[in-house]
Structures are given as C-alpha cells and as structure tokens.
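name: query_chain
kind: protein
chains: 1
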Amino acid sequence: MKELELKYGCNPNQKPSRIFMENGELPITVLSGKPGYINFLDAFNAWQLVKELRRATGMPAATSFKHVSPAGAAIGLPLTDALRKIYFVGDQKLSPLASAYARARGADRMSSFGDWIALSDICDVPTAMLIKPEVSDGVIAPGYEPEALEILKQKRKGNYNIVQIDPEYVPEKLERKDVYGITFEQERNELNINDEFFANVVTANKTLTPEAKRDLAIAMITLKYTQSNSVCYVKDGQAIGIGAGQQSRIHCTRLAGDKANLWWLRQHTKTLNLPFIATLKNPDRDNAIDRYISDEWEDVLADGIWETIFTQKPEVLTSDEKKAWLAELTDVALGSDAFFPFSDNIDRAARSGVKYIAEPGGSIRDGVVIEACDRYDIAMSFTGLRLFHH
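structure:
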C-alpha cells in the first residue's frame, strides 16, 4: 500500500488528507480503527523515540504522546509499591513492556489523557490489559500477541486505533515538509545517543554513574522527539517531567520541574491514602490528585467539592510537609535540547533534586552555568550537539 486516505487533516475543514510514500510501500498496517492525521504524526514520532530507547538501553520502552510531544517515556524497570499505587496498577502482573507503559503513562496522567501509545516490542497481554481501561486514541507497535490484539480491539466499541509498523523499515536520509507551499528539506537526525555522548563532563564533580548515564540518555532521546524548546527530568528509567514548546529556556525548566515535583508529591503517604469514592472514574481521580497536591486544594475544600470525590474529608498536605517531602527527591537527571543561557535554570533544577545534567554547551555564559552546578555539586556534561525538533 503506497497511500492511505484520512478523514481530514489537523482540523475537520482541512480536506483532502492522506499519508503516502513517493517510493515504496507504507511500512504500517492498520489493524483496527481509522487513525487520523495527528494520530499518525504522534505515532511516527513516538515509534522513533521508543525504538531509540530500546537500542540505547537494551530494555523494552514505551511512550505516551500528545500533540506531537511525549507526556511520558520510560523503559521497563520493575515498579516499586508506591509507583504501583500511584499508577493504579495494583497487583496486576506486569511484564517489562507493561512496566514501561505504566511508567510512561503514569508520569503525567493529566497530560496523557487521550494519548497515542508507542511500544518498542510486540504488545503482550499484560500491556494490553493496562491500556484497556485508559482513555487513549491509539497504539503503534511492531506486533501484537493474538490475545493482546483481541483485548485492544474491545476498546471504543471496536474502533480503537491499532497500528502495526514494520520494525525493519528504514526511512530515506532526506526528509521534507511543506509550509505555505514551500518545501523544506533536511537530512534526518540520525544521531546515536550512547555513553560516549556524555564523556565531556565540565564540572568539578565528574561522577556520572551508569544509572545517571542511562537516565541522561533517556532524557536526550526523549528531547529529540519533543517540540522545542524542551527540557526533560528523568529518574530511575523514566521521564518524570517534560517541558515542551516553550519560547524561554527557564520556562521549560520550571514547567518540567513542576511536573517532576507533582510526580514526587503523588508518592507522599497522605496522597497515597486518599479515600476515593469507589465509583470515581480514572480521569476524575487523576484530576482530584492533581488539585490535592497543588495550590487549588483550599478552593476545593471551600467549595465543598470534596464530597463528590472522597468518602471523608482528607487531611490537608501542608506547605511545610510538601517542602520536607520534596527535599527527599534526589539523583534526578536533566537533559536540555539546547544550552542554558543563564544560571537560573540550574537553581530551579536543583530544587527538584537534579544531580546530573546534559546540555550542548556553547553559550557565552557557560562559565556561569558551570559555577552554579559546582555550588550544588551537580555533574554536568556538555554534549556539543543541539537537539531541536520542529
């Protein structure tokens, strides 16, 4: 198949719409549903991300995509009891691939609502069982176990978008896109991110543990497929905060850092023990948790909304308790797709437990940024390569 007609483009008024190959056949098969223009933009970017994570780490990988940027990305490390609870997987059996998706979806469940999923490996039953109850637009993977495929086909009354991609497909080296009737052409970004990518450590602290290099690789590969400007915080094999598409670098760092803080606050004992009404739907529960650990909670209490969410009035998570808990977040890796122009980015990163940084370097203020890292005993690598994605 060289061409696939789509219902419409980015918006319903943008017709006709299609995906096609100038040379050769499309490397995908639609097994269920009718994916749209934005679905395929998410699918193809997401597939590249998980394929590269698999290659870099040797572990199954998953990502949760929204509007052509990842909301989460992870590899299949086992989940702690706390992560099982905040990702709402309970005592379900989890394969490494299922663990990867639980982490990718769970990092920022608010942003992952209605996501597009990419899986590096053949989708197995445990992964399909995780995907089944979630609000999601579709999934792309190199294959599906027969039982897993049947589970996924039950979503959306049989209309869930399921795409299979040929894992051996290699795109042409030149890529093109049209803007305002004008064609842009560039060589694909085939940069291979591995341990050597972080060899140039420029700070007084030169120690990058194997786990730190792994997490920095996850951060940089994630950024490679995130709309720029972008910054990514990673801990224990998963992105915990992604700031995408901001015009200012510090706004990326703040946005991603705030998300990392929320991820950590969800693991506080008070949050873990919130007394939800049994019939509460997943999105409503996720929204309630987000409000509970944010500054909005006082408004929720004042409005009496809590009675529609909880069986009893929860204890407030105080500002002092939040500060004390956030102080325990540490060993976080941070990647930036371009250099930090000011040291305020380092100050903000340190507040979210960052101990390892990778960025291209090349700013006239590199010295000031290095000094800031030294104040916090942060190890920082200059990669020498920018990773803008547009």
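note: DSSP finds 13 helices and 15 strands in the chain.
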